[in-house]
Amino acid sequence: MTSHLKQFPIPTLESLQAIIAEDIDVQKVACEWMDSFTTFFQRGDVEGVTSLFIAMSHWRDMLALTWDFRSFHGIDAIQTFLSDRLSSVQVSGFRVKPEYTALQRPYDGIAWIKIHFDFETDIGLASGIVRIVPQPQNAPWKAHCMFTNLEDLKDFPEQIGSLRNHAPNHGLWTSQREASLAFENEEPTVLIIGAGHSGLDLAARLKTLGVRTILIDRNPRIGDNWRNRYEALCLHDPVWYDHMPYIPFPSTWPVYTPARKIANWLDHYAEAMELDVWTSSTVKSARKNAEGTWDVIVERDGKERIFHPKHLVFATGIGANEGKTPSMPGMESFKGQILHSTKHKHALDHTGKKVLIIGACTSAHDIAIDYYRHGVDVTMFQRSSTYVFTVKRGWKHMVRDTYWEGGPPTEVADRITASFPHYMAVGLNQLRTKVIAEDDKELLEGLHRVGFRTNLGVMDAGASLAPWERAGGYYIDVGASQLIIDGKIKLKNDSQISHFTETGLKFENGSEFNADVVVFATGLGECRDAIKWICGEEIGAKTRKIWGLNEEGEIYGAWRDVGVDGLWYMTGNFAVSRFHSKHVALQIKAMEEGVFGTRYQSAELI
């Protein structure tokens, strides 16, 4: 499953045959490197630029220089990229941000100077982060990893801060909001399917750029996609990681947010940002028309309305949203209840019954805790090993330097995180995963004693690759692991399932398990399923793969070209959606204003 994934060596001081002087002037070294880089880059000197990089170096670009998401690994790939693009991209205005320039030593024997900088292209404002490493015999430092990112369009800035609406509004606001929401005799430029956090993030970004947008959500109330899930659901990410664009959570907000609370926040967010959402509405179909726009049929209050947006965005989550229950032999003969985890609501629905949960990642653990706390006999069936780390000990190694109280501003933290290409960072994440596992040693040994199988994540890199490659495969422990160790949540994992019986399941080793309820916590299916349902098989067939890591370590399909003009897929957790919603909005705005350039796509898409 992971054979296509790559790992590149991390430059250690030993491999570089370099030492760092105790009296090093970090700012001086940084400025000298940036001065050379700026000179070569602005005059289009590819050889000059690449002479400033080590052989096994990396360059990740998000829209600034490629109008795409690209990661180039190795000096040859970087040289080809620069040769292809430098002549067509006018760059200027490089400026180092000394407040974020620092010598860092993330692990023993590894060190670099991290430099943040801003620059401009012909149409946009951009930022960058580069990490430079020492060379033998005090030779000038060279770059190991470069990140460049489009921040804004010069001529079309976000209408925020000093650019916000300054006009007083005396008695007109309510009628204006009603008119905006009605869309009478008006077409949206963008129609977003789904008003969860991803859809709201993008709508807010588009609104500040002056792009007329409507969101369509089938739920009666914004936030119901969280409100209607199982009662025990709670975010396992800390609050500093989960801020939404423009409106951060209050400083009194709990570190880990209950689902009902986040649901209410989404409702509040849409109101505060004045986003135009049609709730209790369903997109029946969407088809391309002769003019190149979309014919989107929306049903609301028993009536149909056809919109003709230029851009159609799916913000329906990872997978099929409803959850996809695997098909297994004998299911039709089972006399109990079968449901997917997305349909589980209340543990008390199954009081007095025996429950088997199929799956051993986040949803399975959360639901199992819910059942146990309500006195329900619950067993977890583990099909394969799970990466487990604890909230208490794991997060301090993963996000305390970025997304934590007293850390850098959220927008800076987002860029620091993005500045590590996925494949380049595998070695670093393996080191971190070992440290976390050592901290969690007692808990992991307890799980192993009762037979629960664990791993160290995809490529032993913890939770760094699993979300991108598998959209799951791990559990951030908030208490279920100890319940498994104590036998309060029972465990079965000695054989794979053979088939359902009338009273439960039979396994390949001949054992049987009697159950009244079987809950599948087995993932949400294929992202393109929702596109096929709404846009038809023809559009679905043209749509490229969505999610998973490509040959460069970038995500397939999400947030950019998916193979169909005017079709977008907006998804990700709170942090990812916050960051990439800006990228999607900038692409759409650039297209609408006629300043979008040519995508520099990877060979697999050409």
From TrEMBL:
<dbReference type="GO" id="GO:0050660">
    <property type="term" value="F:flavin adenine dinucleotide binding"/>
</dbReference>
<dbReference type="GO" id="GO:0050661">
    <property type="term" value="F:NADP binding"/>
</dbReference>
<keyword id="KW-0560">Oxidoreductase</keyword>
<dbReference type="Pfam" id="PF13450">
    <property type="entry name" value="NAD_binding_8"/>
</dbReference>
<dbReference type="InterPro" id="IPR036188">
    <property type="entry name" value="FAD/NAD-bd_sf"/>
</dbReference>
<dbReference type="InterPro" id="IPR050982">
    <property type="entry name" value="Auxin_biosynth/cation_transpt"/>
</dbReference>
<protein>
    <recommendedName>
        <fullName>Flavin-containing monooxygenase</fullName>
    </recommendedName>
</protein>
<dbReference type="InterPro" id="IPR020946">
    <property type="entry name" value="Flavin_mOase-like"/>
</dbReference>
<keyword id="KW-0274">FAD</keyword>
<keyword id="KW-0285">Flavoprotein</keyword>
<dbReference type="GO" id="GO:0004499">
    <property type="term" value="F:N,N-dimethylaniline monooxygenase activity"/>
</dbReference>
<dbReference type="Pfam" id="PF00743">
    <property type="entry name" value="FMO-like"/>
</dbReference>
